[in-house]
Amino acid sequence: MKRYFTSVPVILLLLMLSARISQGQNLKTADKQSPDSVVTVKDGTYEGMSRGKYIYEPYWGRVRFTIKDGKYTEIRFGIRDSSLHETFDGKYEKHFEGNAEYIQQSRNDWKGVQTYPKNLAGKGDVNKLDAISGATWSYNIFRASVNEALKNNNDR
């Protein structure tokens, strides 16, 4: 009788483990997602706003683009400073006068604001974009804004 009670928990444990393993193997191929999965997006005009991960900063990215025949076109992107009520552009560095590091950072991110839309049009997938060295702030806001636009359109 003692042998029976000690082997029952072991058998139950083995059954639970084998059930978990077999669940992963019984998934249909269509249910599995790989990093290279292609996401198709309907043709249309998309618009989104996001601060990305910078939720404690007053900067909002706004993107608007059209998808036609599965390709990104007419991509417009900008970042707005909601505290100063002005657009982040090539002249924004004036706010960092006397701080060479911040001025350079501003220039790098302005280059990103101009470049990321072109790169998205070429790559066709926001997840395949690479950040420009020194322009990760604008990169993160751009990606988050594009993802928000795609999400908003899919929620309709």
Mind explaining what this structure looks like?
- The protein is built from three helices and four strands.
- It has 156 residues and is of the alpha+beta class.
- The chain has a four-stranded antiparallel sheet with strand order 1-2-3-4.
- A hairpin with an 8-residue loop joins strand 1 and strand 2.
- The longest helix is centred in the first third of the chain and has 24 residues, at 2-25.
- It is globular, with a radius of gyration of 24 Å.
- The termini are far apart.
- Residues 10-34 have low confidence and may be disordered.
Spell out the key features of this protein.
Sufe protein. Chain: A; 3 helices; alpha+beta; 43% helix; 156 residues
CATH fold-type name of the largest domain = Sufe protein. Chain: A
What's the number of domains?
2
CATH class category label of the largest domain = Alpha Beta
Please provide the count of β strands.
4
Q: How large is the count of helical segments?
A: 3
- SS-based class: alpha+beta
Name the beta content range: 15-25%
Helix content: 40-55%
Give a short account of the largest sheet.
4 strands, antiparallel
Low-confidence stretches: 10-34
Shape: globular
The CATH architecture assignment of the largest domain turns out to be: Alpha-Beta Complex
Termini gap: 63 Å
Q: How would you write the strand order of the largest sheet?
A: 1-2-3-4
Give Rg in angstroms. 24 Å
